[in-house]
Amino acid sequence: MLPFFSYYYENFVFLSLFTLLLFVPCLPARKLLDPSTELTADVRTNSNATWHSFMRFLDAEKGSQLRGMSELKKYFQRFGYLSIPNQNLTDSFDEDLESAVLQYQKNLGLPATGRLDSDTMKEITSPRCGVSDKKTRTAQKLHAKIHYAYFDGEPRWDRSSPMILTYAFSPDHTIDYLSSADIRAVFERSFARWSSVIPVNFTEVDDYYSADIKIGWYRGDHGDGQPFDGVLGVLAHAFSPENGRLHLDGAEAWAVDFKEQKSKVAVDLESVATHEIGHILGLAHSAVKDAVMYPSLSPRTKKVDLRIDDVEGIQALYGSNPNFKYSSLYESDISSSRSIYMERRRFSKWTTVFLVMVVFIFSL
């Protein structure tokens, strides 16, 4: 009887496991890769050639000596983390670079390891805003829950109430593959988002040269000391109040609708416009990854809704729009967090069921 029982028992276990695998939701099967290989593949798709080359520094730390490290130091120099003259930049991972990496990690809400770990390298190689991350906060706002920041001196637009700022598009520096109507509609929505939370209104005018805010597309070195660097590098930059210049990189594949723009490197115009208007008004970069004012944006990603951090930061400069209510904003943030939580809970539940069933079957 034992062989007979053993035969049917083995088949029962096999069929039970097979049936369980059929009904348990699971992730698509994929070939297991080294994490650094997966990260490199992701970076190759989502960053420009210069920043992609930085991946060879993955996991470098203080004391490392790697050819080309001086170029990475120029990156940190550009975004406000190093003040060493170019002629003094070396290929050594020295104390200055370690300090820059630590500050970068803290500013962008990353684990502060001081190493060029995978999280840090993924952020370094991501397309981003060209505005420096150097920022200041007022003393009374220095506490753990505040992540928004301002430019040095906390500049803001000084106009009589009700404040109206005008904007216009450059007649000479534009792109021809998006319609003028689509571009104008995008910026109208972006300005309206900020206007809905502060007592500032924005009006488009025809006269570009007299407008408070001047918008245009440029390529490479365009005379403002902040040259663009091609596809998926610096996407755009803007200047603090009351300068008013807002420049976008003409080399990017700008999109107003991802269903129409199929490019893998397409960048959402509305997301970038909303972010740069925040700079125009006086906000620096935020450490909150979900905030509009976070410095990076992946291709084919849309991030246009102001978060609590964005709103609190801009209202500290200009006050609140009398019609604005925080309730809707909290609901939006809570809804987003709940969706993430429920998805994780669902996956965790089925993982637990699977493990319990496996243990039960093999304990028979």
From TrEMBL:
Species of provenance: Coffea arabica
Gene3D superfamilies: Collagenase (Catalytic Domain)
Any one of the GO CC terms: extracellular matrix
Binding-site positions, Ca(2+) 1: D176, E252
Alphabetical keyword list: Calcium, Glycoprotein, Hydrolase, Membrane, Metal-binding, Metalloprotease, Protease, Signal, Transmembrane, Transmembrane helix, Zinc, Zymogen
Cofactor(s) needed for function: Zn(2+); Ca(2+)
Occurrences of domain Peptidase metallopeptidase (ranges): 153-320
Protein name (record): Metalloendoproteinase 1-MMP-like
Gene this protein is translated from: LOC113704363
Record: active site: E276
Secretion signal, residue range per the UniProt entry: none
Residues where Ca(2+) 3 binds: D229, G230, D249, E252
Organism lineage: Eukaryota, Viridiplantae, Streptophyta, Embryophyta, Tracheophyta
Annotated Ca(2+) 2 binding sites: D212
